[in-house]
Every structure is written in structure tokens, then in C-alpha cells.
């Protein structure tokens, strides 16, 4: 149904973007459209009318770089698959219904398995299947490949799930085993079970949107990102996705807010600086979710987003110190800010070393690492504590900023302790087998 658009993107469009982003080498993407198309025979290579709702629902780069073939046909499933396999006897095929929301990680992992393999997910009306059909027999077929199921084996199948079940009952296909799927997502520092869902109603769309939203959260993160920002991020991501706002624009606003806050703090404009800082912190959660949920992530966006995250915190700390000391370079808080700068840099260097050695994030290797990440010395942890300290000093005017200064010095000490912990963890697991599961 082209009207069902999770996060502003049609179902077929989502599938096409998932294919575009996958590492698969695609010889052909065949899109069979039956609704409103006259005729009963398979018209391989025929075009679907441009004004058809499914074609009109495609936006942007959905078909860019994809070798696509549109098939206008009301033929049953077995005939559609049979025509494709007859035309390309040496090809393996992934078969999905157009109403399917598929875990993009399944595409290359399922395709890499041998034989006819399928994965089924969802319950009730949301039940759906992705099926891998191995190349059939032929004069040049590789001997290790099993013979294709015949038309007689699949003619009774009304949908892909029924086809997979029929092949399994006949001993010609098997379900994908859980141990065959690598569910660890390095960038999100979490394990996530594979999924497929059919979206056939607006209620299903809403349920799938919530699932996709939460599945794109990191497994280990700070308490602001984990507990405070999600309701606001949810309110922002949905309209931004519908309006097709590119996440790089969100990142651009975030960069402006990040940089503008620093001179404001140095000049003593604490409230305005904090407003921009919290805006940046919120948008930092929005742009990543928006990119992943709409398949609009890019190398530039990744560099801008993560580069900003890594670079700006020590300069914020220097801005806070300048504001507390009114620009006095000999102030103890200024000296502490310099220590904070280098402690932060050293702490950050532990993460890539740990990942290079273990293949996993230092913040999610073991449950204790995930728990410590919640309150580790990072921007989203330090910002609310420092804000509260400045507010308390402002409520009881007096010489200097005693509470904020004490909190700032405590932040430096906490950063030092975090560095020690991460150095110990890096040394402890330096020689583990890369990619192995932690004990």
C-alpha cells in the first residue's frame, strides 16, 4: 500500500534503499506489481505505467544505481519467480513481499548462506518472510548448488511465507539458524535480533515505527541520551522524516549552536550558552536517528556528526573555565581546564585502540562497561551538573563562582578516573581474539 509510509518513506522505497546500501552485488532487482494491472501472463521486462501508485511513491535516489526491472503482471507467485529464474538460471535470488520491512543486515548474511534458506519474523498480520533461493541446475550450474524447486512445488503458495513453509515441508529449504546471524552492531554498541515485518495497516505502521526508532538507539550511552532526550527526539524525527529533511541540515544547525555557545560562556552569557548547548545535545540524537531511519546517512554526515562529537567538548570546558575566571589566565580553573583538555584527548584515544584489537566498543564490551558508560565523563553527563552548579551560584550572588568551580574541578578528577579505567580495560583485553564474544 503506497499510502503506508513509515517515517515518510514508502514500503517499496525502503526496500530499494536497503538494497542500495547493502554490500550485495546485484545483477537485477525485479519489482513485480499486480495491483491495477491488466492481463494474466508474466511480461518479463515490461514496464509498469509511470502513473502507477507504487512508482509514484518512489522518491529521490530509491532506484539510483540499481539494475531494476519492472514487471506488470497479475500472475501467481510461482510464475513470477519461475520467469525470473528461467531468465537467469545461474543467479541466486532474494524474494520478499513489497510490504516487508526488512532488517538490512539480513540481506548479505542470508545471501552468503548455501542452498535455499529463509527467515520469518513478525506475528499475526505482521508475519513476513525473506527467502533466499539458490541458483538452479543448468549446463553451467555449480555442482554444489542444489536443484531449484520446480513450479509444481510452489504453485500453491499464496505468499512468500507460504512458499518458504512449503519448501521446508518438502525438505527443499530450511530456516536460518540463530547462530548463523551476527547481530552485533559496532556503531550502536549492542546486539540486536534480526527482524522482518509486514506492514498492512496504519496500526502496523505505527508499531513498526516505534520498533525501528528504539532499535536505532545505542546499547550503552549516557543517561541524557538514554532517559531524557528520547521523547523529544521521537517528536522531532517523525515530522523531519516526512518533510524529507536531510540529517546533514540538522547536523549543520548543531554545529552552529556548538560553536556559538563558547564565546557566550566566555562573556558570562551563561543562560544563552546553555540553551544552545542543550539544543546541540538534542539535535545530536536527532540527526543520527533520522539518517538511519531514512537511509540518508553518508560519509560526509558521519564525519560531521562524529567529528563534532569528538572535537568540541574540550573547547566547551575551556569556555566554561574562561567564564568562571572572567578571563584570568592564572586562575586554578583555567589550569584545570588545560588538564581536562589533555585527559579528554587521551581518554578518547583508548576507544579506537580497543576496537581495533577486539572488534567491539570499549563502552559495551561487558555489562560493567555499559553501566559505567551511563555516567562516564562526557558532554551529556558533565553539562547538566555544571548547569545546576552555575544556577545555584546565580541564586546566591557573591564573589566568584564557588559551587561551579568546585563542580568543574570534580569533573576534571572524574575525567582522570575514567581515563585510568579505560587504559586498564584496553591493556586487559589487548590480546583477545578479534571479533570473539566476551566471556
Explain this structure to me?
By secondary structure, the chain is an alpha/beta fold. The protein is 52% helix and 8% strand. It has helices at residues 11-21, 53-56, 77-87, 106-111, 151-154, 160-169, 202-215, 223-228, 230-242, 247-266, 270-293, 299-325, 332-358, 367-374, 379-395, 402-428; strands at 29-33, 68-72, 93-95, 100-102, 117-121, 128-133, 174-175, 184-185, 190-191, 196-198. Strand 8 and strand 9 form a beta hairpin. Helix 10 packs parallel to helix 12 and helix 13 packs parallel to helix 16. It is elongated, with a radius of gyration of 27 Å. The model is unreliable at 37-45 and 137-155 (pLDDT under 50).
> What number is the mean pLDDT?
88
- Helix share of residues? 40-55%
End-to-end Cα distance, whole Å, is 46 Å
Number of strands: 10
Beta fraction: 5-15%
What sequence of helices (H) and strands (E) makes up the elements?
HEHEHEEHEEHHEEEEHHHHHHHHHH
Task: Briefly say what this structure is.
The protein contains 16 helices and ten strands.
Key structural traits:
439 residues; alpha/beta; 4-stranded mixed sheet; two-stranded parallel sheet; 16 helices; 10 strands; 52% helix; elongated
Could you outline the blueprint of secondary structure elements for this entry?
Elements: H1 11-21, E1 29-33, H2 53-56, E2 68-72, H3 77-87, E3 93-95, E4 100-102, H4 106-111, E5 117-121, E6 128-133, H5 151-154, H6 160-169, E7 174-175, E8 184-185, E9 190-191, E10 196-198, H7 202-215, H8 223-228, H9 230-242, H10 247-266, H11 270-293, H12 299-325, H13 332-358, H14 367-374, H15 379-395, H16 402-428
Parallel strand pairs: 1-2, 5-7
Antiparallel strand pairs: 3-6, 4-10, 5-6, 8-9
Helix pairs in contact: 9-11, 10-11, 10-12, 11-15, 12-13, 13-16, 15-16
Amino acid at each position: 500500500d503506497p499510502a503506508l509510509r513509515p517515517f515518510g518513506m514508502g514500503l517499496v522505497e525502503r526496500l530499494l534503499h536497503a538494497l542500495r546500501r547493502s554490500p550485495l552485488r546485484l545483477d537485477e532487482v525485479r519489482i513485480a506489481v499486480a495491483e491495477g494491472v491488466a492481463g494474466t501472463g508474466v511480461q518479463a521486462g515490461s514496464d509498469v505505467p509511470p502513473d502507477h501508485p507504487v512508482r509514484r511513491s518512489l522518491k529521490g535516489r530509491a532506484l539510483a544505481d540499481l539494475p531494476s526491472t519492472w514487471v506488470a503482471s497479475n500472475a501467481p507467485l510461482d510464475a513470477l519467480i519461475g520467469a525470473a529464474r528461467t531468465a537467469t538460471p545461474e543467479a541466486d535470488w532474494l524474494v520478499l513481499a513489497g510490504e516487508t520491512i526488512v532488517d538490512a543486515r539480513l540481506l548479505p548474511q542470508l545471501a552468503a548462506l548455501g542452498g535455499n534458506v529463509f527467515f520469518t519474523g513478525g506475528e499475526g498480520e505482521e508475519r513476513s518472510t525473506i527467502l533466499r533461493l539458490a541458483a538452479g541446475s543448468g549446463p553451467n550450474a555449480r555442482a554444489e548448488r542444489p536443484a531449484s524447486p520446480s513450479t509444481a512445488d510452489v504453485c500453491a503458495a499464496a505468499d512468500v511465507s507460504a512458499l518458504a513453509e512449503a519448501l521446508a515441508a518438502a525438505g527443499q529449504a530450511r530456516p536460518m539458524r540463530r547462530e548463523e546471524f551476527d547481530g552485533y552492531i559496532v556503531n550502536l554498541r549492542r546486539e540486536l535480533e534480526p527482524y522482518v515485518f509486514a506492514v498492512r495497516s496504519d496500526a502496523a505502521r505505527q508499531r513498526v515505527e516505534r520498533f525501528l526508532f528504539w532499535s536505532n538507539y545505542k546499547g550503552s550511552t549516557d543517561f541524557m541520551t538514554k532517559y531524557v532526550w528520547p521523547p523529544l527526539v521521537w517528536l522531532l524525527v517523525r515530522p523531519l522524516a516526512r518533510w524529507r529533511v536531510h540529517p546533514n541540515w540538522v547536523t549543520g544547525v548543531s554545529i552552529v549552536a556548538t560553536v556559538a555557545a563558547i564565546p557566550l560562556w566566555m562573556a558570562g552569557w551563561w543562560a544563552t550558552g546553555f540553551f544552545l548547548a542543550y539544543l546541540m545535545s538534542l539535535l545530536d540524537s536527532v540527526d543520527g536517528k533520522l539518517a538511519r531511519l531514512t537511509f540518508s546517512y553518508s560519509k560526509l554526515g558521519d564525519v560531521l556528526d562524529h567529528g563534532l562529537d569528538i572535537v568540541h567538548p574540550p573547547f566547551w570546558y575551556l569556555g566554561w573555565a574562561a567564564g568562571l575566571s572572567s578571563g584570568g589566565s592564572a586562575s586554578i580553573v583555567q589550569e584545570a581546564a588545560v588538564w581536562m583538555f589533555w585527559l579528554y584527548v587521551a581518554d578518547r584515544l583508548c576507544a579506537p585502540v580497543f576496537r581495533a584489537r577486539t572488534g567491539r566498543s570499549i563502552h559495551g564490551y561487558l555489562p560493567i562497561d555499559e553501566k559505567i558508560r551511563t555516567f562516564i565523563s562526557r558532554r551529556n553527563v558533565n553539562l547538566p551538573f555544571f548547569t545546576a552548579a552555575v544556577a545555584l551560584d546565580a541564586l546566591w550572588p557573591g564573589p566568584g563562582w564557588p559551587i561551579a568551580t568546585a563542580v568543574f574541578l570534580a569533573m576534571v578528577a572524574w575525567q582522570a578516573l575514567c581515563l585510568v579505567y579505560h587504559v586498564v580495560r584496553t591493556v586487559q583485553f589487548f590480546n583477545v581474539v578479534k571479533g570473539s564474544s566476551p566471556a
